[in-house]
Amino acid sequence: MRRRLGWGFWLALGWITLVLAAAAAADLLPLPRYDETLAGPPQSGPGPGHPFGTDGLGRDVLSRVVYGARVSLGVGVGAVLLGVLIGAPLGVLAGYRRRAVDAVIMGVNDIALAFPALVFALAVVAFAGASLLNVLIVLGVLGVPAWVRLVRGATMVFSEREFVSAARLLGARDRTVLWREIVPNVSLPVASYAFIGMAVAIVAEGSLAFLGLSVQAPTPTWGGMINEGRPLMETAPHVVLLPSFVMFLTVLAFNLLGDRLRALTDVRQSGLEPVRRRRAERLPARPHHVEEDVLLQAADLRTHFTTARGTVRAVDGVSFTLERGRTLAVVGESGSGKSMLIRSVLGLAPESGTLRGGHVYLDGQDLTELDDQQMRRLLGTRLAAVFQDPMTALNPVRTIGAQVAEPLMVHLGMKRRAARARAAELLASVGIPEPARTLRRYPHQLSGGMRQRVTIAMALSCGPDVLFADEPTTALDVTVQDQVLRLIRRQREERHMAVVLVSHDLSVVAEWADEVIVMYAGKVVERGPAATLFERTRMPYTEALLAAVPKLTDPAHHPLRLLPGRPPDLANPPSGCAFHPRCPYARERCSAEEPPLFQAEAPDHLYACWYPVGTGAGAVETSGVSGMSGAAEVLRATEAAGAEETTDTIEGADSRGR
Amino acid sequence: MIALRLVRLLLVLLVVTFLSFLLLNLLPGDPTTQILGLSASEEAREQLRRELGLDDPLFTRYLAWLGELVTGDLGTSYTTSVPVTEALAERLPVTLELLVAAQLVALGLALPIGVAAARRAGRPLDQALTALSFGLLSTPVFVLGVLLILVFAVKWQVLPATGWTPISLDLGWNLTSVLLPAITLGCAQTAVYARLLRTDLIATLQEDYITLARARGLSPRRILWRHALRPSAISLVTAVGLNLGALIGGAVIIETLFGLPGVGRLIVDSIFARDYLTVQGGVVLISVGYVLVNFAVDLVYVAVDPRIRRA
């Protein structure tokens, strides 16, 4: 508790205690009386006899500040108490009873909030007379609407929680529920706001006093002292500055107490809480061979996040290559690291608390070595992206035209008029009717399918070499899905570009992809040409995905058909093969040792499994053939030697299994 | 939707005017003595009683008063013999200029501060700006005003501490005389606006369309100002409207502090001159204006966020 409140809280509490104690014990302190004129020479600065100096009449400023604190703190505390006493019961009632009671209370409350509070306070005090009691009552009553709103909100939150519903169901009387369950929970937000409310009341009282409309002379008030000291500002600034400083500190202290208490209840938006941030750090990459003639190559790509729960390995050593005119599909369940892989390739992964590793080569150029500006020149022109949800992919407050024309103007240096004309052509090329009209529209005026066409047009605007499509059809209706995928393929053929298609839908992948990588828990678990991978599946996870392929009879937006078990917790992945808790073929070894990527019999087909499906390896193992362990030993030897994991040392085991 | 808001607006206006009307009833003792003073003749009191309709039931008096209010008649001051409406009309431009200037100062400072803080969220600059905002929020407006006068008018003598030059006389001097009051009044709002903008910008920067803008190779500066700022400005627009209440309260103090002949100063001066009809008129003007501005703010949303145009 102490640590989380921070030293600012305790300093503020100390200051308020000091002021409170001084105000309470003012008569006992060795100070001249606040109204004793010529206690010292007039307008003398701070000195040993008068620590805060004296004012124009020679009165001791410190004494006046201390006595003035009685008014300020008295009004601050009093007004808040009054506000709570009236506002809190109304708020609890509105939040707990709901319906008619709530509607009436909140209706009146909304009207009350529509008042310029200080002007009304001023007028009421002016008409009713300036006295401590009047000021206190007016400021207290004016605070009621805010209290009602706050307490109602807090009450509603808690009256929906299980323990309150349970108490109600058990037949507890409303009064009991309110006192036992709701009041204790609402008290922290109330305490937090009480301190802020005191700061507000102190400032309001000060303002009235500054205008001469609070407690009347000779009783000193902070606002009054500041007002009276103004003519002396040139000759004796301390008469104004010291009360100002004390008042500032007091208001600051109350605000700080409120803010820290609020931070206790709400971790997200704690006012002064520093958010720890670190630049992305680099992980070392394993040695790899840079392919000469491929368009895009990822080598041992890693993106890890440091979280409170541990390191999350969102992308963990992914490698692939992609040539022009081909489509690479990345498949896996939600949370398997597909989307983060795309963002990592594009350099768009979050920076805070991130560890990065591996390399990305575009035509042999290492993108991870580029600085931000060099990377920006490639993004949009050579690398382009389309995301899953077209509803969130477009800026809601800018016209389609402004958004599609922008990359043309930024990257190609086109003038506004030319860019808009080109934008219209682009929209037409992705099959949007009335492109000129669409340019003037806002995203919310378009359907989901049309929006996804717009994002594709934007991605294609500068003629990229690689298009990254992150589940481009998941959020769309089945009929629209096919149109969008056709559009992407046509553009790929016309522009001779490469496509990286992220999907969890294997029927889409089987139809549109040339090569496939299957991801699980941030790792590649199977990889190969689409036809081979689907016909001769080796990894049980891929097999399970295939079994779960949605049929046409499924409703739209249907997620994966049930795969047994839950996707792994990336902060705490299972030992050995991450898939083993869900795998129907898992053996002891699977939970003990992580399988490397083995070479299957078909070229370019790799899989990470000790007991691949379709090979009978599992059956061989059950019958206790010892050859398998021999093969494993070969493998261990190669691993120990630091060789690449993708070796063909297991060919023996593979062929024997068949 | 609009009809519902209009009904609510009318309701609020009725309550606000009724409460302003009630103010006179707060006067202790005989209102005629309070308004005319002890030395007034019995005839004058009788006449005032008739004018104020003090013998009629409260609600009848309110309706009569409201009828006159609607036609722009707020009565004639007994101390200055000037019609209240006229006195207010003369002072209103000064207050309006002060309010507009203060909002401009506040927004002009809050935009760069909020954007800079959001862009470097959690880093030292952000923390420093957050602490500064917190400090500004805790500074009463008259304390800040006194400090600024001390620095700019007394020590450096670059700006006048008091006084007012109307626009019609000299624009340059007019701006000089409004600058320090506007900065004083605007500073506290700056803190509010900058914090709001920072929070909303940080949320907006997590959106998909921002990531996609980055994927299109746009510069961070461009993304912040052209893509993220407007979707993040909705709370800010609300706050600009709602804060008018705080701002008007502050204007009363600022006008007194800097000697500006605005509505706020008129109210304060009238309070001390026991010119209650003028005080009442000023309160009516400010509260009705405040309610109307808040109503207008609701309509401005639509301009900022085209999504709402559907509703």
UniProtKB/TrEMBL annotation, chain A:
GO MF term (any one): ATP binding
Keywords (A to Z) from UniProt: ATP-binding, Cell membrane, Membrane, Nucleotide-binding, Transmembrane, Transmembrane helix, Transport
GO BP annotations listed: peptide transport; transmembrane transport
Superkingdom of origin organism: Bacteria
Domain ABC transporter, residue spans: 296-546
Transmembrane domains' residue ranges: 71-96, 103-126, 132-151, 190-215, 235-258
Intracellular or extracellular location(s): Cell membrane; Membrane
Chief location category: membrane
Low complexity composition-biased segments: 638-652
Recorded topology in the membrane: Multi-pass membrane protein; Peripheral membrane protein
Family: Belongs to the ABC transporter superfamily. Belongs to the binding-protein-dependent transport system permease family.
Descriptive protein name: Peptide/nickel transport system permease protein
Annotated organism of origin: Planomonospora venezuelensis
